[in-house]
Amino acid sequence: MSFNPRTSFIAVCTGLVLATSALLSGCSSDSSTSSNGASLALGNWQFSSTASSASILPLLSGALSGSSTAPSGIFHTDSSSACVAPTTDIALTGSVSTNGSASITTLTGDLAGGTLTITGTLASNGKSLTNATYNVTGGTCALSAAVPATAQAYSSITGNYTGTFSDPGGEVLAITSTLTQTPASDSNGNFQLSGSATFPSNPCFNSPVTVSNTQVTGGSFTLTYADPTTLNSVVASGTFSTDGTTLTVTNWNLTGSCGPDSGTGLLTKQ
Fold it and tell me: Which tops the pLDDT comparison, 29 or 172?
C-alpha cells in the first residue's frame, strides 16, 4: 500500500486509539472482601440507564477508591445535554452490606441540589452490580422514580494492541501499540494513559508516535497525538470492552498539513 497524507493520518490515529485504551486500564482494585465473600472492585466504573425518564442523566462515570466495603469516589456525566455539566464533580460515598446471601452496594452523593442514590447487588467477581438502580431526589436533576441501570467496572487496558484505522476513502492501515493506564485517577475521577504506536513510515507523522492529552472514564476514552515536527495532530475517541481487550475508535480527526481526514478503527489486545 502506498502512503499518501491521508493514509499516514490514519496510521497516526490508530496509535492514538491504542494509547487511549491504555489510559482506561489504569483502574486498580482492592483485595478486602464483604461479609459474604464478594469484593467490590475499585477503580474505573460506569453507571448508565436507557430508561426514558433518565434522559436528563443517562450516564455517570468515574473512579471508586477507599476500601471495597466502604468505597468513595468522584463521578461526572459525560454528556453536554445532561442536567449537570461534564465538568461538575459528584462526590459519592458508600457501603457494601450483607442481606441474606447477597452483598448490597449503596452509593450516595449530592447532585445539583438533590441526592443521588445508586444501589445494586454485588456480583461474585465484584466488577458489576445486578438489579442496579439509581435515583435523584430533589434539585434540578430529580427523577420521577428510581430507574434500572447498568453498573460496571472497567478493567485496565495496559498492554500490547494491534489493529487498523480506516477512512471513508478505503485506506486501511495496520497499527501496533503499547499502552499503560494510570493505576489511580486524577482529582476529577478520570484516568490517563501513556504509550506509543508504530505504523508505516509516511510524511505526516514520525514513528514511533506518542500519546498525550488523554482521558479514560467509564467505558470511553479520548486522546491526542501531535507531531512537533510536522505539526499534524490527531484526536481519537471511542469506547472499549469491560475487560479492556477491544478498543473501538468511533471517530478520529486529523488536522494539519495532511488533513483534514477522519474515520474509525478497531484495536485488540494481544
Answer: 172
| Pairwise CA distance, residues 185 & 156, whole Å | 12
Asked if 4 and 165 count as a contact pair (C-beta separation under 8 A), the reply is no
Domain edge (last residue) among 128, 153, 178: 153
Instruction: For residue 126, give the CATH number of its domain.
Output: 2.40.128.30
Largest CA distance in the chain: 64
C-alpha cell at 175: 497499527
> pLDDT of 132-145, one tens digit each?
999 999 999 999 99
C-alpha distances (whole Å) from 230 to each of 5, 7, 44, 244 are 11, 15, 35, 32
Q: Which of 114, 134, 153 is the last residue of a domain?
A: 153
pLDDT for the residue numbered 229: 85
Q: Is residue 202 part of a domain?
A: yes
**pLDDT interval class at 4 (50, 70, 90):** very low
pLDDT at 196 over 80: yes
How many Cβ atoms are within 10 Å of 267's Cβ, its own excluded? 29
In a domain, 75, yes or no: yes
In a domain? residue 206: yes
More confident residue, 91 or 197: 91
**Whole-number pLDDT of residue 11:** 41
Taking 50 as the threshold, does the pLDDT of residue 35 lie above it?
Answer: no
Distances (CA, A) of 85 to 57, 63, 89, 133, 205: 10, 18, 9, 22, 35
Q: Determine the residue type at 20.
A: T
Q: Are residues 97 and 119 in the same domain?
A: yes
Instruction: For residue 153, give the amino acid letter.
Output: A
DSSP state of 87: T
SS3 content of the chain, % helix, strand, coil (to 5): 10, 50, 45
> Cell match 469484593: residue?
39
